[in-house]
Design a protein that fits this description.
The protein is α/β, with parallel strands linked by helices. It is built from eight helices and eight strands. The strands form two sheets. It has a five-stranded mixed beta sheet. Strands 1-3-2 form a three-stranded antiparallel beta sheet. Helix 8 links the parallel strand 7 and strand 8. The radius of gyration is 18 Å and the shape is globular. It starts with 9 loop residues before the first helix and ends in a 14-residue tail after the last strand.
């Protein structure tokens, strides 16, 4: 017998679109973002329905940990049929690769935190979407570009896991990003937010920020969001 597919509710549409936008989200991230005021069984029913109907893939971290969610190609097609632009979606066949997993998860944590602020952003654009939209026109691409329309403002988020040297790699990258933002968004109030894995690294970044063309905020991963970071401090 053919599978009967339920109609997408407005919340289903929002959740699936967010998962597709951010490559993957964890169940705790989805709960905080979209189901904060309801019980866990409501989340479970949404996930079971979405997986059963082929819209989401799900896997437990390390086999028995938290659930990792990604948008399937079928899910992408359903969203496109509901009016979501295909260019806004990143369908996948599994979680992010191990080398990218922590970084992708931290970007998701940051997105959830930002959407809980007042006023909430009007647009969240991860790096893959910026690359698709702007091609080679941006000299530097942040991990996440956050936009507000009224008043016009932009926040470029760089998630740093501490794997690159501060002086020779991270600081030049931030300088290039600052200039690119000034050129691309000249009329907007623009800030860079750098999230690092430890207080020691935060101090090193702050001490090297001379000459930046835009304001820079540096904080420790997880502290702003009030959530558990995927990265251990050192």
């Amino acid at each position: 017998m053919p599978v009967t597919r339920s109609k997408l509710s407005p919340r289903d549409l929002e959740v699936l679109t967010a998962i597709g936008r951010f490559r993957m989200l964890t169940r705790p991230q989805v709960k905080r973002w979209f189901f904060e005021d309801v019980s866990e069984p409501v989340v479970t029913r949404f996930l079971e329905r979405s997986v059963r109907e082929g819209r989401l893939g799900v896997e437990r971290l390390h086999g028995n940990g938290m659930q990792i969610l990604w948008l399937t190609r079928r899910g992408r097609d359903v969203l496109v049929g509901s009016g979501v632009a295909a260019a806004d979606l990143f369908p996948a066949t599994g979680p992010a690769a191990a080398k990218d997993f922590a970084h992708t998860a931290e970007i998701g944590n940051t997105a959830v935190w930002l959407m809980k602020r007042t006023p909430a952003p009007d647009e969240l654009l991860p790096a893959w979407a910026l690359q698709r939209y702007f091609g080679g026109r941006l000299a530097a691409i942040p991990d996440l570009l956050v936009l507000w329309r009224k008043p016009e403002a932009a926040l470029a988020v760089e998630v740093d896991l501490g794997t690159e040297p501060v002086a020779s790699v991270l600081l030049p990258k931030l300088s290039l990003l600052g200039r690119a933002l000034r050129e691309s968004l000249p009329g907007e109030a623009t800030t860079i937010l750098v999230l690092v894995p430890s207080e020691r690294r935060r101090e090193a970044v702050i001490n090297g920020l001379d000459g930046m063309t835009v304001p820079v905020i540096v904080d420790v991963l997880g502290r702003l969001a009030g959530v558990n970071s995927s990265v251990k401090s050192s």
